[in-house]
Structure formats: structure tokens, C-alpha cells
């Protein structure tokens, strides 16, 4: 851990700064999304007289910690690459605010704590799924980012597992409904990942990341692939209603959101610009939580 001016700050400031950097290491926005998706799957899969809020809370906390462990491992493995990119060079590891040894211990503690909570408060199947998600993200997706766009497929699997493990936590089993909510989040990953890769292309090239399809080109072919995956979200968004998981109102919301999201891809096909990709990236940020909240409200 390196704090060049540590002699000039108080112990309180030092502790607060160190705690803040540990929290940043967990990528809280991403990990909160994982926790929310897990809770979403649990509520959607739950059937009975009343939701067990203690299980729901510890499922969310466990999912947050396991996700935090996975992204910490990711940052340890990519520390030298993060130093090369503008968007990541100021993170706690590249700047030396947290050492690799400290981050490793932190990843082990958060991972074990998260898996332990899931094992105690949910079931073995949920815990195994979470462990699989951690391994896929840290040790399959992370190294594949420098190999090619196959990394997006590999990364979409752990990215789509949170709602599935939430469902499994509620039911202790798999069902077609569980795979439907997994499928929606799985397909959503492709326009989401590729829009980010398009926007951050120059930075990604510095690190050797090859996430865009079509040979890494920001062209019409890549835009068409983004459009196709976004198009699939429209019929997929109707499946929860068709299978009786939710009602007709959420189907309406999912369809409207899907059409709006799809319209952004046509703009990208026309312009093939960073600005158009940025709109899709923010559109992806909005699409998933809005649709999932609509499913929840329709279920409750």
C-alpha cells in the first residue's frame, strides 16, 4: 500500500481513505446490480404465504460479496493492463493504494464470506452456482478478453447467473421459468458489452482487449449484430407473462422498453458513431432494471 503523503494525514483520514479504496475495489455499482438481480430472481421464484426477508437480505449480501470477490480477482489479474487505460489507471491497485497481497486476502475473505452466507441462508445449489459464477468471471472471462469476442459469450454466463441463483434460492431447483429469466439477462449482455467496447475501444486497444465482433471493427456489421441480439429481447421479454410468472402489465413495459432499446440500434447502424454506441450503453443501463422492476411489481 502506498500513500505518498501519508505522513501528512491523520489516522482517521488514513482509515477512511483505506476503507473507501477497499469499497471501490468491490466495484459497488456492478456488485449492487448482482445483488439486485439475485433478489429479483428470488422474489420472482418465491411462492407461498410470505417472502422470507431474512433470506432475501442475506442472499443479496452474499451475492454482493461474491461479486465483489470476483471483480477484485479480475483487477488483480489485470493490474498491469489497467495501468495502460485511462478509465482504469486510477483504480486502487494500479495506483498502489491497495497492494496485490492486500487485494488477494480481501478477495478470499469476501468470497468466503459471501459463499458462507449463501450456504447458511439459502441452499447448496445456490452456493455452487455462485462459486461457478465467480470462477467463470475471474478465470475464464478475464483472460479471454485478450483472445477475442468469445470473451463476451463467456462473460455473459456469469453475468446472467444472478437471477437464476435467486430463483434457485427460492425453489431449490431449476425450471423452465428459471432459464427464461437467465435467458433475458444473458441476451442483454451482448448489446451491453459491445456498446461499452465500442465506446471504450481506444482504451481497450491499449490493453489488448478484443471484445468487438467482426474483427474488432466499429462498422455496420458490428452494429447489425448488436441490433439482432437486442431484437431477441422483445419476444424474450414476453415469456415471463406467457409462462404465468408475471402479468400482462410487465409484458407491456418489457415490450415498450425493448422497442425503444431496439430503436437505438438502428441509429447506430445509420451513424456507426461513438455517440450512437453511447446511447445504447446508457439504454442498456436503463432497460434491465426497469424491466426487472416491472416484473417484480407485476408479481407482487
Automatic annotation (TrEMBL):
Role: Converts heme B (protoheme IX) to heme O by substitution of the vinyl group on carbon 2 of heme B porphyrin ring with a hydroxyethyl farnesyl side group.
GO BP term, example: heme O biosynthetic process
Cellular localization per UniProt: Cell membrane; Membrane
Coiled-coil parts of chain: none
InterPro entries: Protohaem_IX_farnesylTrfase, UbiA_prenyltransferase, UbiA_prenylTrfase_CS, UbiA_sf
Class of enzymatic activity (EC top level): transferase
Molecular function as annotated in GO: protoheme IX farnesyltransferase activity
One Pfam family matching this protein: UbiA
Reaction(s) catalysed by this chain's protein: heme b + (2E,6E)-farnesyl diphosphate + H2O = Fe(II)-heme o + diphosphate
Protein family according to the UniProt entry: Belongs to the UbiA prenyltransferase family. Protoheme IX farnesyltransferase subfamily.
Topology in the lipid bilayer: Multi-pass membrane protein
NCBIfam families associated with the record: cyoE_ctaB
Main location: membrane
EC number from the UniProt entry: 2.5.1.141
Protein name: Protoheme IX farnesyltransferase
Biological or metabolic pathway of the protein: Porphyrin-containing compound metabolism; heme O biosynthesis; heme O from protoheme: step 1/1
Extra remark: Carbon 2 of the heme B porphyrin ring is defined according to the Fischer nomenclature.
Keywords, ordered alphabetically: Cell membrane, Heme biosynthesis, Membrane, Transferase, Transmembrane, Transmembrane helix
One annotated Gene Ontology cellular component of this protein: plasma membrane
Presence of keyword Cell membrane: yes
Keyword Transmembrane: yes
TM region positions: 30-47, 53-77, 98-121, 127-144, 151-170, 176-199, 220-242, 248-269, 276-297
Amino acid at each position: 500500500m502506498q500513500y505518498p503523503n501519508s505522513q501528512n494525514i491523520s489516522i482517521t483520514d488514513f482509515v477512511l481513505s483505506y476503507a473507501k479504496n477497499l469499497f471501490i475495489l468491490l466495484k459497488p455499482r456492478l456488485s449492487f446490480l448482482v445483488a439486485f438481480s439475485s433478489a429479483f430472481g428470488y422474489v420472482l421464484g418465491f411462492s407461498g404465504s410470505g417472502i422470507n426477508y431474512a433470506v432475501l437480505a442475506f442472499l443479496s449480501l452474499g451475492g454482493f460479496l461474491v461479486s465483489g470477490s470476483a471483480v477484485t480477482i479480475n483487477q488483480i489479474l489485470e493490474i498491469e493492463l489497467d495501468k495502460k487505460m485511462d478509465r482504469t489507471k486510477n483504480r486502487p491497485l494500479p495506483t498502489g493504494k491497495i497492494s496485490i497481497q492486500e487485494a488477494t486476502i480481501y478477495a478470499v475473505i469476501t468470497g468466503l464470506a459471501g459463499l458462507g452466507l449463501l450456504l447458511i441462508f439459502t441452499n447448496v445449489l445456490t452456493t455452487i452456482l455462485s462459486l461457478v459464477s465467480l470462477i467463470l468471471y475471474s478465470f475464464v472471462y478475464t483472460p479471454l478478453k485478450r483472445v477475442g469476442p468469445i470473451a463476451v459469450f463467456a462473460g455473459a454466463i456469469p453475468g446472467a447467473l444472478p437471477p437464476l441463483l435467486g430463483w434457485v434460492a427460492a425453489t431449490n431447483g431449476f425450471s423452465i421459468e428459471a432459464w427464461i429469466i437467465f435467458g433475458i439477462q444473458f441476451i442483454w449482455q451482448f448489446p451491453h458489452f459491445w456498446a461499452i467496447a465500442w465506446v471504450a475501444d481506444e482504451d481497450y486497444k491499449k490493453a489488448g482487449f478484443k471484445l468487438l465482433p467482426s474483427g474488432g471493427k466499429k462498422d455496420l456489421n458490428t452494429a447489425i449484430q448488436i441490433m439482432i441480439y437486442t431484437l431477441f429481447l422483445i419476444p424474450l421479454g414476453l415469456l415471463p407473462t406467457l409462462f404465468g410468472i408475471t402479468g400482462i402489465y410487465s409484458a407491456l413495459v418489457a415490450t415498450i422498453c425493448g422497442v425503444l432499446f431496439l430503436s437505438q440500434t438502428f441509429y447506430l447502424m445509420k451513424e456507426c458513431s461513438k455517440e450512437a454506441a453511447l446511447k445504447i450503453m446508457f439504454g442498456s443501463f436503463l432497460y434491465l432494471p426497469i424491466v426487472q422492476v416491472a416484473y417484480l411489481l407485476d408479481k407482487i
